[in-house]
């Protein structure tokens, strides 16, 4: 068909932020997939608990110390995380670099604590179905922690190269911050299950 | 002039038509040969590759079906032993569901959604390339295992305890479970791409009420994929863990539960039916207007029916479990919801009938497939309402009645529309038309062959013939009907072969198609056949739901995009107002390497859990290679 020009797009910005960016929507979609995975994991926990004559099954409830410390560490990390996101929105390269270093450390802290948390579960994955779902829920969340920390480290490295000072990179930092909030948010129902429900 | 041409931000407004097309072709083209084969991110090339692979799996699955029919054609035939027969029906079902039906529907979406929306590539095109390689690897895992006599033998839904560590020694069930992981990763990747493409890459002016119905269908399907597939990933992971590291999810002796498997599997498995069916109804809604020469009747109810079906799809799973002894109240709820889903299906059927009634039918091959769909799918829908009732389901559960029902729904409801779609959009893949004469023969053979093959299975089921038996005794009254079914299946197979022959022959020597050979209304027909690598020289501007019918002779377009980097248009989610120019990634071999690394990790993790630890390192390396910025014009902002 013969084209007839009726609109001019040349004034549009190259690359939009937030909801004008494809990766922002992609991040949301992946959060929906993984959030469904967490919801199903919690569903399996509740299903098995509803069938069991006692819960936790043949084990003491997990010691709450390490899990609570992780919860505190994650909740506290949301503050610098939001700041990094804000600095990225303002294209402040220096502060973003510092912020990503801080977030890398704050990502490693819960991973170290997690090692002790596994040790304090009072049950092994192959003891019974209760142990299995507890280990899988904790393992699923640990995978998310590792993935996001690795992501943050790579992003940190990029921000120290000539590619760092770029609207796209600042967008990546914001998306990464969004994802960290998701990792924190998904932990809360898992924490409530593992430590709260096991004590009811 | 040549210096000006190399400017990083050269716009299309500075060039005449011929120069513009050659510059765009240079920017968007895929290199020829092997390099291009492994690095392309062009949605059309990947989609065609996906469709061809899926049809290859259809033929392989079809060969297995014929082997089963050969074995069952007479009582106590000694051709295939019970062990091989178990593998054959498992690999047949798994191939058809996971390697053919779902991937082929998503692949048609990958091909058409960007074209129908008037954009230049799908969102996340490298993820799209990755998806194909992962899908191919998953298919190879299943089929290599089958050829080596370690194919899964636990049925396509792999119920525990049969598939658990106690009753399935060896690695057969693990092959099945890991094939699930491959195909679900591939499907989820495409779902994300399609959701984001539909939300953000629509042509300016394509508000929600102007989106083609096939795109609506793919959009809803993608959400169903996103919300349903994690369930089967959770299930198959739990199964692998039970088998590999001794967890007890499905072991009742240690607090696990066998029915947990069925809940998780069918929470995915029933929506899976709609993941296959919704794209098919989208195809019909998009094809039908062309062949009755009028816009679709009831656009809004059709969209609402798609969304309604997508939501109700999650409320039906327990009807697969009516014979497991669940509480009565629960069963009643799921009976009601199973019958309720007939309402949106009925709405669609009546909208299509009204469209035909008010139009002037043109009896070409795609339209004939749609008529075959009506007859076959309505019969499948009726038996669906029958098995939604608990007493009847209890009687026919696990019999050939159910086999007949779901083949009527899946072949009638999805394969006939798919064949209509391939015939209809063939020119957008190859630039040529399929033969009308051979097409008519295919429709006739498939329609007659299908109904004569599968209708008698209803009766066999009512006569008590169970599914998944490798043979039956001569004194049972099933012999004659089984022979009839087996003979008719040859006609069905001939129909498929003729279709494939027609496609292969037409791809090489078919009649050349113009841009819009059917005189259709949507944007994929506003560009050449096959479309150039950049799809549209300028992004179309949309002013109605049927742009090519309502805009007269000239196509309204927008100008102002860059030509020396891959650039497309981002629009707002509801009204599709232009929001930003955005770049689209270049070709890359990293998705291929990432898929290889992922495949090694997944296959090795069948044998040792440590493969997940060590295997994740190459995966991480390839992902860093994939995302590391390289200072190309596409990275400018």
From TrEMBL, chain A:
Family according to the record: Belongs to the cytochrome c oxidase subunit 3 family.
UniProt name for this protein: Heme/copper-type cytochrome/quinol oxidase, subunit 3
Protein topology in the membrane: Multi-pass membrane protein
Lineage of producing organism: Bacteria, Pseudomonadati, Pseudomonadota, Alphaproteobacteria, Acetobacterales
Species whose genome carries this gene: Muricoccus roseus
Cellular component, GO, one term: plasma membrane
Pfam families cross-referenced by the UniProt entry: COX3 (PF00510)
Keyword Membrane: yes
Top-level division of the source organism's lineage: Bacteria
Annotated SUPFAM superfamilies: Cytochrome c oxidase subunit III-like
TrEMBL record, chain B:
GO terms for cellular component: plasma membrane
Listed SUPFAM superfamilies: Cytochrome c oxidase subunit I-like
UniProt GO MF annotations: cytochrome-c oxidase activity; heme binding; metal ion binding
Top-tier EC class: translocase
InterPro entries: Cyt_c_oxase-like_su1_dom, Cyt_c_oxase-like_su1_sf, Cyt_C_Oxase_1, Cyt_c_Oxase_su1_BS, Cyt_c_oxidase_su1_bac
Protein's membrane topology: Multi-pass membrane protein
Transmembrane segments: 47-68, 88-117, 129-148, 175-199, 211-241, 273-292, 299-319, 339-359, 366-388, 400-426, 438-460, 480-501
Residue ranges the record marks as coiled coil: none
Organism: Muricoccus roseus
One Pfam family per UniProt: COX1
Role summary: Cytochrome c oxidase is the component of the respiratory chain that catalyzes the reduction of oxygen to water. Subunits 1-3 form the functional core of the enzyme complex. CO I is the catalytic subunit of the enzyme. Electrons originating in cytochrome c are transferred via the copper A center of subunit 2 and heme A of subunit 1 to the bimetallic center formed by heme A3 and copper B.
Gene Ontology biological-process annotations: electron transport coupled proton transport; oxidative phosphorylation; respiratory electron transport chain
Subcellular locations according to the entry: Cell membrane
UniProt pathway annotation: Energy metabolism; oxidative phosphorylation
Family listed: Belongs to the heme-copper respiratory oxidase family.
Top-rank lineage group of the source organism: Bacteria
Keywords: Cell membrane, Copper, Electron transport, Heme, Iron, Membrane, Metal-binding, Respiratory chain, Translocase, Transmembrane, Transmembrane helix, Transport
This protein's name: Cytochrome c oxidase subunit 1
């Amino acid at each position: 068909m013969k084209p007839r020009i009726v609109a001019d797009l040349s004034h549009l910005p190259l690359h939009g932020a937030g909801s004008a960016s494809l990766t922002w929507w992609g991040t949301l979609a992946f959060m929906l997939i993984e959030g469904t995975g967490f919801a199903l994991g919690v569903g399996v926990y509740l299903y098995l608990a509803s069938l069991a004559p006692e819960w936790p099954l043949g084990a003491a409830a997990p010691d709450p110390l390490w899990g609570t410390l992780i919860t505190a560490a994650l909740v506290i990390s949301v503050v610098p995380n939001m700041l990094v996101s804000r600095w990225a929105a303002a294209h402040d390269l220096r502060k973003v670099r510092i912020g990503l270093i801080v977030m890398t450390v704050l990502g490693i802290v819960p991973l170290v604590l997690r090692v002790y948390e596994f040790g304090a579960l009072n049950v092994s994955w192959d003891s019974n179905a209760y142990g299995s779902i507890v280990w899988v829920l904790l393992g699923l969340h640990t995978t998310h922690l590792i993935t996001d920390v690795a992501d943050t480290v790579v992003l940190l490295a990029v921000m120290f190269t000539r590619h760092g000072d770029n609207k796209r990179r600042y967008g990546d930092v914001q998306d990464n911050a969004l994802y960290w909030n998701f990792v924190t948010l998904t932990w809360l129902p898992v924490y409530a299950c593992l430590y709260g429900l096991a004590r009811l | 002039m040549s210096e000006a041409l190399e400017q990083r931000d050269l716009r299309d407004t500075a060039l005449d038509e011929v120069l513009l097309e050659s510059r765009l072709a240079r920017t968007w083209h895929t290199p020829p040969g092997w390099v291009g084969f492994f690095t392309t991110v062009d949605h059309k090339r990947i989609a065609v590759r996906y469709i061809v692979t899926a049809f290859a799996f259809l033929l392989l699955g079809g060969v297995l079906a014929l082997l089963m029919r050969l074995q069952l054609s007479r009582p106590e035939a000694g051709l295939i032993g019970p062990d091989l027969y178990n593998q054959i029906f498992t690999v047949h079902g798994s191939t058809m569901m996971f390697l053919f039906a779902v991937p082929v529907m998503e692949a048609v979406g990958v091909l058409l959604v960007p074209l129908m929306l008037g954009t230049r590539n799908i969102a996340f095109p490298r993820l799209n390339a990755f998806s194909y390689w992962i899908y191919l690897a998953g298919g190879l895992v299943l089929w290599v295992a089958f050829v080596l006599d370690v194919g899964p033998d636990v049925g396509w839904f792999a119920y525990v305890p049969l598939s658990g560590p106690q009753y399935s020694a060896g690695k057969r069930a693990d092959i099945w479970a890991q094939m699930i992981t491959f195909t679900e990763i591939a499907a989820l990747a495409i779902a994300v791409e399609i959701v984001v493409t539909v939300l953000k890459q629509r042509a300016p002016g394509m508000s929600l009420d102007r989106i083609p119905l096939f795109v609506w269908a793919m959009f809803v399907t993608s959400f169903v994929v996103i919300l349903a597939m994690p369930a089967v990933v959770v299930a198959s992971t739990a199964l692998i863990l039970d088998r590999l590291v001794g967890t007890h999810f499905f072991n009742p002796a240690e607090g696990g539960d066998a029915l947990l498997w069925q809940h998780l599997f069918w929470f995915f498995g029933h929506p899976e039916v709609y993941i296959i069916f919704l794209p098919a109804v989208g195809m019909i809604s998009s094809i039908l207007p062309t062949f009755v020469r009028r816009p679709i009747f009831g656009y809004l109810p059709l969209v609402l029916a798609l969304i309604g079906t997508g939501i109700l799809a999650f409320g039906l799973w327990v009807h697969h479990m009516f014979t497991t002894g669940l509480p009565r109240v629960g069963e009643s709820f799921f009976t009601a919801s199973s019958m309720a889903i007939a309402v949106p299906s009925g709405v669609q059927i009546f909208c299509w009938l009204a469209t035909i009634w008010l139009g002037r039918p043109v009896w070409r091959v795609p339209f004939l497939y749609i008529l075959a769909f009506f007859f076959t799918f309505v019969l499948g829908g009726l038996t669906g309402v029958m098995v939604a009732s608990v007493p009847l389901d209890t009687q026919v559960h696990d019999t050939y009645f159910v086999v007949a029902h779901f083949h009527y729904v899946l072949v009638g409801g999805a394969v006939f529309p798919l064949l209509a779609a391939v015939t209809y959009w063939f020119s957008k893949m190859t630039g040529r038309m399929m033969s009308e004469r051979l097409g008519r023969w295919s429709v006739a053979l498939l329609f007659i062959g299908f109904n004569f093959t599968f209708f008698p299975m209803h009766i066999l089921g009512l006569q008590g013939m169970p599914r998944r038996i490798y043979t039956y005794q001569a004194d049972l009254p099933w012999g004659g009907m089984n022979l009839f079914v087996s003979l008719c299946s040859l006609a069905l197979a001939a129909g498929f072969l003729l279709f494939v022959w027609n496609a292969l022959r037409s791809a090489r020597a078919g009649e050349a198609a113009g841009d819009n050979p059917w005189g259709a209304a949507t944007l994929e027909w506003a560009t050449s056949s096959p479309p150039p690598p950049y799809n549209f020289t300028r992004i179309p501007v949309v002013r109605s739901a049927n742009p090519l019918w309502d805009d007269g002779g000239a196509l309204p377009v927008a100008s102002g995009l860059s030509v020396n980097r891959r650039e497309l248009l981002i629009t707002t989610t509801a009204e599709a107002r232009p929001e930003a120019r955005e770049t689209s990634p270049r070709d890359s071999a990293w998705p291929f390497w990432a898929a290889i690394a992922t495949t090694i990790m997944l296959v090795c993790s069948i044998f040792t859990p440590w493969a997940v630890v060590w295997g994740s390192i190459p995966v991480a390396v390839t992902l860093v290679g994939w995302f590391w910025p390289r200072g190309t014009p596409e990275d400018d902002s």
